[in-house]
Amino acid sequence: MPVTLREIVARDRAAVLTMELQRGVVGDRSSFPELAEAVRTGDVVANTVRLLDAARAAGVPVVHCTAGFRADRLGSPRNAPLIGSLLRQADHLLEGSAATELLAGIGPAPGDLVSHRRHGVSPFVGTSLDPTLRALGVSTVVATGVSLNLGIVGLAIEAVDLGYRVVVATDAVAGVPAQYAADVLRHTVSLVAMLATVDDVIGAWS
Q: In what order do the strands lie in the sheet with 140-146?
């Protein structure tokens, strides 16, 4: 029998991950205005807040996956065109600056965890995210945030490679352009993750 969403996101095995829902990525200090607009028009923040509130109420862990860089860029290899371009912007996601803060309403709440990185484009490799989740007894991650162009895809693939089940909250993620983001969900992400709306996931915890 196929496994159900309710089984996959059971309270004792799931965690919700937010991916780069930071002011300097998709907020008021965004380096990616088109992506920030997609987040606004898709109600990604409001939907994510609803999901996080429900997760916390259900006792499901919340982990914020963030990115940021030292002013001297130490520890941040320029090994991809995107990263090289961003690191040439002197004020992009400087650690300790407002740009690295989470969006209003996202957190972190007192019981939330934060997994920060200075390298790469996805949250698992080279960070403490995997051992943190294993210490919490997590075997399923519910992904929110940005972007469907890169970060969410990387998150899902890395998680599956590490043995986790993945659920992507379809109305709590975004990418650009909109049709491309929809195609990525349908033709790529669906191959490694279950797709579900925020209401679907919340309903599975009820």
A: 113-117, 62-67, 14-19, 140-146, 165-174, 194-196
* Assigned token pair, 107: 């957190």
Structure tokens at 134: 């294993």
Contact 148, 22 (CB under 8 A): no
Domain range for 162 is 5-204
107, 100 contact by CB (below 8 A) = no
CB 138 within 8 A of CB 164: yes
Taking the whole predicted model, whether its pTM rises above 0.70 is answered as yes
Q: Are 49 and 173 in contact (CB under 8 A)?
A: no
C-alpha to C-alpha distance for 121 and 146, rounded to whole angstroms: 11
CATH number at residue 135: 3.40.50.850
Segment 13-63, tens digit of pLDDT: 999 999 999 999 999 999 899 999 999 999 999 999 999 999 999 999 999
- The two tokens of residue 20 are 């780069």
Residue with tokens 């965890």: 113
How many structural domains compose the chain? 1
